[in-house]
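Entry 14. Structure prediction run on the chain below.
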Amino acid sequence: MPRFGFWLLSRGAAVLAVCGVLYVLNGFLIGWANAYDVMLGITSPVGVRPQWCAWPLSLVGWAVMPAIVGATAGYVITEQIDAHHARDLSDVLSELRSLAAPSSPPPASGDGS
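Output returned:
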């Protein structure tokens, strides 16, 4: 299993669960639209009541979620690049060496002129 897939199933699930619990808690306490706005940084946690639950949601929306999205995008891009590098480096180098080697002269014709 790839490293990112392992992380997502082990520790990542816990991180996403905490993010989800914070969002649901804030949805019930400050309203769903406010929770969404605070998580995305549209609204400051100072502008909603109660603030004690909005601050952790704001921090999650500011730091944790972009990190997870960035890691996911980086993993997907890396996997796509690796999929296109199907040839071993030694094979590529031997092919380049054979192309760079001086070619042998053409065989002499046997007509003697």
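The chain has four helices and no strands.
Filed with the rest of this week's runs.
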